[in-house]
Every structure is written in structure tokens, then in C-alpha cells.
Q: What sequence folds into this?
């Protein structure tokens, strides 16, 4: 359609009375509604508790059409996770760059900065590390495509922390990286129950204990 005619038609629809006919012409296409419906339901109820039927109902379309557009519920979950994983990847890349600019090649200080950033506090609600909740929901489906995407993202984080541990000359850097990630995750879960301030302090103390245990004099 000619752009000018399309704009004129859109203006007429926008100014027309609210009727079922005008709503049908002005609302987003079905695929967009499906994506928005899935985002809303997954964000509210988690990726495990939502069905294709609920997504279709929320999107005002049929379950068959959801399958035609996206495949199975597993595919819908994967499509929900992919853009969020991409955003998190870019955010972490920017964060690591900022640490390098701040501390130079002092990997030990970069690690300490990372720990302090993730330490729970009283500034706001504390949540698990990104995508940990979704991983727990999908844990009993080891071949789930969404879980594979999360594992890939988590592995990249583990590798980055292990590389920093190696650059800081800590002994057994991969083991230390795993311990630090487990420590951070546990502290954030603990903070959700008992409050952030003390959990944050204990996290920093425990991380320092690990650094001392894995330190190897040059």
C-alpha cells in the first residue's frame, strides 16, 4: 500500500469510534500478540507454569496458530529467553570493560569489584543471579532448548571468572571460579529470606577467605 494512503487510513482508524471492527484493524498482528502474551505470562508465573493454551488465550488467538508460528511450548520458552540472554551478554561485556578501565590489568581487584557489585544490600530486593530461577524451573528437563541456552550463558560467565582467577595467579582458578559463583548465588538466596546487609557482609568475608586459600605466592 502507498505510504500516504496507509497513514491516512491509520489516522481514520485512530480517530474512529471504539468498536469491535476498529479494534480488529488497529490491534497488533497475531505473532506480536503471542510474543507479548508469552512475555507477560512467563514474567508473572515463570516459564514452567504457563501452557500454550494460556498463551493463546492471552493473545486472543488459537493454540494451533501459536504452534504454527513458534512450534512447541519449548520453542516459545526459548524465543522468550534468547533476547534476554543477548541483553545480559551485552550488559556483562560492558561491565567487564568498565572494570578493565577502572583497575587496568589488576585481575584481583576486578574480582573484588565484581563480588561487591553482587553483594546483597538493603538498597532493594535481592534476586538470584540472572537466569538462575529459569534454570531451576527447567532442571528436570535436561534436554530443554531453553536450559541449553542458559547453560551456554552461565558457562561463558564461569570462563570469564576463571580467567580472572588465573590472571590473578590464584591456584586452581576453575575451582575457585565455581566456588565464587556458588557463594554469590547462595548469598543472594539467603538475603531474600534474612535480609541483604548481613548477607552482603558475609559474602565479602567468605570471598576473601577463598582468595587467601587459593593464593599462591609468586
A:
Amino acid at each position: 500500500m502507498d505510504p500516504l494512503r496507509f497513514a491516512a487510513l491509520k489516522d481514520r482508524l485512530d480517530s474512529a469510534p471504539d468498536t469491535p471492527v476498529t479494534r480488529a484493524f488497529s490491534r497488533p498482528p497475531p505473532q506480536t500478540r503471542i510474543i507479548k502474551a508469552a512475555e507477560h505470562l512467563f514474567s508473572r508465573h515463570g516459564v514452567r507454569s504457563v501452557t500454550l493454551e494460556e498463551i493463546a488465550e492471552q493473545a486472543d488467538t488459537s493454540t494451533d496458530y501459536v504452534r504454527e508460528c513458534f512450534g512447541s511450548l519449548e520453542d516459545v520458552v526459548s524465543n522468550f529467553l534468547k533476547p534476554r540472554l543477548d541483553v545480559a551478554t551485552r550488559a556483562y561485556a560492558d561491565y567487564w570493560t568498565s572494570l578493565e578501565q577502572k583497575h587496568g590489568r589488576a585481575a584481583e581487584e576486578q574480582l573484588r569489584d565484581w563480588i561487591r557489585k553482587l553483594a546483597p544490600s538493603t538498597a532493594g530486593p535481592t534476586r538470584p543471579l540472572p537466569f538462575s530461577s529459569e534454570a531451576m524451573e527447567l532442571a528436570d528437563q535436561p534436554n530443554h532448548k531453553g536450559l541449553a541456552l542458559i547453560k551456554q550463558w552461565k558457562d561463558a560467565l564461569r570462563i570469564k571468572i576463571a580467567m580472572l582467577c588465573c590472571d590473578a595467579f590464584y591456584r586452581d582458578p576453575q575451582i575457585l571460579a565455581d566456588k565464587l559463583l556458588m557463594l554469590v548465588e547462595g548469598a543472594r538466596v539467603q538475603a531474600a529470606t534474612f535480609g541483604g546487609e548481613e548477607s552482603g557482609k558475609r559474602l565479602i568475608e567468605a570471598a576473601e577467605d577463598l582468595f587467601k586459600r587459593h593464593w599462591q605466592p609468586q
